[in-house]
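Quick one: structure tokens for this chain, please?
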Amino acid sequence: MNRYAFALRMARQDALRAKGRTALVLCMIGLPICVVVALAVIRKTASEPGVQATAAPAESAILAMIVAMAVLQVVLLAGPAFVVDVRRRRRELALVAASGGAGRHLRAVVLASGLLLGGIAAVAGTALGIVAAAVTMRVAEANGAEPFGPFRVPWSAVAVTILVGVVTGLLAAMIPARQAARMDVVAALAGRREPPGRARRGWPAVGGVLVLAGVVGSLAGVRSLHEFGAALGAAAIIFGLVLACPWLVGATGRLAHRLPLPLRLAVRDGARNRARTAPAVAAITAAVAGITALAIGGASDFRQEQVDYRAELPMGSTVIRPPADKADAVGPALQGALPGVPLITLRALPGEGSTCMDPDTSRCKSVAFTPDDDEMSGFNIVDNVVGGAREARMLLGRDDPAVTAALGEGKIVLFGARPPADGKVTATISYWADDQEQTAGTVEDLPAVAAEGDPNVAAIVPPKVAERIAERADLAVRTEGYGIDRADHRVTPAEEARLKKTLAAFTPHDDLFYVERGFTDSYDKPTLLLGAAAAIMALGASLIATSLAAADARPDVATLAAVGARPRTRRLLTMGQAAFIAVLGCWLGIAGGLVPGLAVTRPLTESPGDSGVPGHGAIVDVPWLLLLAIGFGIPLVAACFAGVVTGSRLPMGRRVQA
């Protein structure tokens, strides 16, 4: 029989025999494949048919780094699982060698497991990802999201993803395969353990250089490369820590003499067997470092949104802006949906932000009362509101005696502008033609005053003055929207849903309805997602390494039983091994992600001050609660879980007949 066919047959038999380990490896490789395929399908379906989606070079580079980090993470997590498999199958592999098998045959057997499991996981993850994308889009559309379009699968990207999954399985099995090829057959048949391999002395130095370069790159790269510089620095730090992990694991063993007996044994065992401990620590470090950087950047960005938030209306007021050609018909429907609530009709002279449906741009005239060099608000709900005291109270959120008096005297009230000279202002009528603004005329000597506050309108124009301007400019005062004053009624979420349903009969867009409730966003959900991701990766890696340690430590545990150790010592030893791996990986990851996370806050949160928002420097918000939960909570959970699944009964050593 061909050695490859023989290896695949043994891999298949072992996968069926060790169902728990097989399911674990399939999940490790298949779940990332599922997520990547689902995102690719959603992106392809959401894009317009016939349009080739192109990404910027920086976006492509960051995407490539994300894929590389995902592959590294899977290899580091699945690698210890294959190491466990090789240790468990030592006697079986030794029998193959004793029957005439060479090192290449043993290597082929282990690589066949990686190929088989990687292939199955890639195909299953791809199928699950396509189904997950379809379900996600269907649920999103059912909850009011815009239609995604015809379902499309990017088969080229899917094929590449399947190939990545297969290669990942092979890479994860490569080091265990080399160990199997060099195994001591006599020691394996006799049940003796092999001494641990020596650590490579050059790796810690290379890792230290990469970490230092990553720190410098993160701090300096954000000045020229912005977020991309921080991403490059984070990648260098993570790879440096991964390379330095074997040395760091060994160095911690020298501090074990200060710990209680179970922890001392656990730390020394992990330091002595770096081949199984270091990959798990590296996997936790890489995951937690990336999550730490993302958490700091995301929390700071969220904090900037909170700082830069500017209310568009007085708190509790409502504005509905229907389509321009259906504005007059929408009013009665809204009043019927909210009976008894006063509805203020917002009539206006067209301004720069007004909608014009006429294809002839010369008929799309707009009115402005201030010169271009005046400081205007960056956003206007309606440009030039036509009305009086009632409209002013609704927009300002209060009764302003000065504004009310000016409107009663027939004066235009300007907002965000300098006081007009001699109490007069000129209305400039203009339109756009050939991408240039053309002046159609002016109306001079209009009485006006400047008022304090920013109600997000350019001006409030008394009705008689508006009629004069409209007559001279040959344009119409039209309905731009409807308002509900907070003094009259505050729209509840249930009423908002009912009004949006009424609007849906006139337009498919749901962004025409706005209720001012202040800054209501929350960062709790992203925090929980990041914490869950860190917990899954850290717990998985620590428990995999702990299971390998438990398999290796059976002779040591038997020795403990022989010298009179209590039954709970085994459980405490296993808990200590899980806690050691989780603590070292989590705290190294937090340290590694701190600098890139702080560095990325500069390009993310610095604001020059435009659109009516004051400028400010970088905003830093470190989610300490999340980091503390990762640093202390995850090791505690890992230790407790390891203690629950570990039996306290100490095994007896094998008796040899005299």
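Residues 290 and 602 are 18 Å apart (CA to CA).
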